[in-house]
């Protein structure tokens, strides 16, 4: 069975700047609304179907949570749904905010 991979905040930033990945943020609505990575898709149980319909299964996906723990389960779930290249971002959004505060936005 395929498994998700880990990716650093820095590698995520680089691949995002190159347009190679899509970011999915699984944090709660309030946290996502307060700040998120620019262009991130807010992935919830209610938006999962929309996400799978809008994105190719070949598109690399990086899952982001608060600290990089919950994203691992969600990343494995996306692999099980057929996404071919899925990553859990180590350090989560807090790691992103610490390294790249200028590349976060509020809705």
TrEMBL record:
What do the Gene Ontology cellular component annotations say? Answer: cytoplasm
Enzyme active site: 65
Under InterPro entries, the record lists: GlpE_sulfurtransferase, Rhodanese-like_dom, Rhodanese-like_dom_sf, Thiosulf_sulfurTrfase
Going by the UniProt record, its keywords in alphabetical order are: Cytoplasm, Transferase
Domain named Rhodanese: residues: 17-105
Main localization (coarse):
cytoplasm
EC number(s) from the headed UniProt entry: 2.8.1.1
GO molecular-function terms, A-Z: thiosulfate-cyanide sulfurtransferase activity; thiosulfate-thioredoxin sulfurtransferase activity
Top enzyme class: transferase
A Pfam match is Rhodanese
Name its cellular compartments: Cytoplasm
SMART domains given in the database record: RHOD
Reaction(s) the record says it catalyses: thiosulfate + [thioredoxin]-dithiol = [thioredoxin]-disulfide + hydrogen sulfide + sulfite + 2 H(+); thiosulfate + hydrogen cyanide = thiocyanate + sulfite + 2 H(+)
State the family it belongs to: Belongs to the GlpE family.
What PANTHER family does its record include?
A: FAD-DEPENDENT OXIDOREDUCTASE (PTHR43031), THIOSULFATE SULFURTRANSFERASE GLPE (PTHR43031:SF6)
Main function: Transferase that catalyzes the transfer of sulfur from thiosulfate to thiophilic acceptors such as cyanide or dithiols. May function in a CysM-independent thiosulfate assimilation pathway by catalyzing the conversion of thiosulfate to sulfite, which can then be used for L-cysteine biosynthesis.
Q: Which NCBIfam families match?
A: PRK00162.1
Q: What is this protein called?
A: Thiosulfate sulfurtransferase GlpE
Taxonomic source organism? Rheinheimera riviphila
Q: Which gene encodes it?
A: glpE
